[in-house]
Design goal:
- The termini are far apart.
- The longest helix is centred in the middle third of the chain and has 22 residues, at 163-184.
- By secondary structure, the chain is α/β, with parallel strands linked by helices.
- The protein has a single domain, classed as Rossmann fold, CATH 3.40.50.
- It contains 11 helices and 7 strands.
């Protein structure tokens, strides 16, 4: 079975992409974030913590169970479009899915951070159940985010970061994990990159992606009418203050976290690292 995962931050089009696979790809199981399947953990919450502290003894059972569940599907392909993949499974995924293919969704980090910040406000406003979990260290963490225990955060005083800045740092970490995975395991030739925005809404690009992945579609045309997971009653407007806070974070980050943005064309297209 062809197994496909997504390299992406939150708020980068994973819901929409999952819908595209469901409506267009033959003989394919498409999942976004499989919360309702007890045998296929969504990899949010504790797996993110276990990955952060490198407690592989507790992390591996989640991936082993996911592997077994995916292999139980009698289809040609399995697709999972979730930003949990790089938060929980970036170090160990190749052990369980050595032949996987990948889709790298790249969205402007200012828009990502602003959209996640807005989503967190809404989640807390409406008191979404289980939005926090208690980890082995006794502390509570937001279920869908990095923990702040990851090494990149040691360069900052967490108490002085705005939520927007916290998620800028998360985006940088996620993109570094993506490139490290592709480099370490020589997987660039198995990864299709999409710029979120113009390319994710471009039929020609999506057809190229399907061909690249070796997938069969129901029709020659691509059905684009798929749900987008927008923040209700909220517009992602990046302000001058956001731009200022972004630059503060970038200037404080060690150079080794910024090297990928100088090397890869997909980041140069964003324009935010060219200034």
């Amino acid at each position: 079975m062809l197994t496909i995962f997504v390299l992406a931050s939150a708020r980068s089009g994973t819901t929409y992409l999952s819908g595209l696979f469901k409506k267009n790809v033959k003989n394919c199981i498409s999942r976004h974030e499989p919360y309702l399947d007890p045998f296929n953990h969504a990899l949010f919450g504790k797996p993110i913590y276990f990955n952060a502290v490198e407690n592989d003894e507790k992390l591996r059972p989640y991936l082993a169970k996911k592997k077994k569940r995916i292999e139980s599907f009698k289809t040609s392909a399995y697709f999972e479009g979730s930003h949990a993949f790089l938060k929980s499974a970036n170090r160990l995924a190749v052990d369980y899915f050595p032949n996987m293919k990948l889709i790298h969704l790249v969205r402007n980090p200012l828009k990502v951070a602003k959209s996640i910040s807005n989503r967190e406000i809404l989640v807390n406003k409406y008191r979404i159940p289980l939005r926090y979990y208690r980890a082995d260290d006794g502390n509570s963490y937001f279920r869908w985010s990095l923990t702040g225990k990851e090494p990149i955060y040691k360069n900052f005083d967490l108490n002085k970061l705005t939520p927007f800045q916290y998620y800028v740092i998360e985006w940088v970490e996620i993109e570094n994990r993506a490139m490290h995975l592709l480099d370490e395991f020589a997987m660039h030739e198995r990864c299709f990159t999409i710029q979120v925005g113009e390319e994710l809404n471009n039929k020609t690009v999506l057809k190229e992606m399907m061909h690249f992945l070796g997938l069969q579609t129901y029709n020659d045309d691509i059905i684009m009418d798929c749900r987008k997971n927008v923040n209700p009653k909220t517009v992602t407007n990046v302000t001058k203050q956001d731009e200022k806070e972004f630059q503060e974070v970038i200037e404080q980050l060690p150079e080794n976290y910024l090297e990928i943005f100088k090397k890869s064309e997909c980041y140069r297209k964003l324009g935010v690292f060219n200034k």
